[in-house]
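Researcher: Go.
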Amino acid sequence: MDTKKLKGYAPTVLRAGLGLLFLLPGIDKLIGMLSGGHMLAGMIGSGLTWIVLLAEIIFGVALLVGWKVKLTVWPLVIIMAVAIFMMVIPNFNLPNFMFHILAIAGLVSLYLSGEGAAAMKI
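Model: Structure:
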């Protein structure tokens, strides 16, 4: 198998995985907050909560389709970094910490490598 032809799809696979990593939990949080059953439902009046939730959904979709990846990754890196300091470190859990670090590394990798072969070119 000639892997040179497939090399451009490596960032595409990473982009799709990271897009789903943000999109699906974002949708879950949205449904939970609207129904009052999510852990963030108590903060429903918090504008920051809604900004983060919508950013996860919007930028998750942007990653999935490959739209402006070099700009899209940075809000998600900020969300993950803030989550580390606000949620992970106070209740330190090593697997959770490593998950956030891995997500940040994947996002930075996308910034450095580009969006990959199957992306929107707008």
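Model: The two ends are 32 Å apart (CA to CA).
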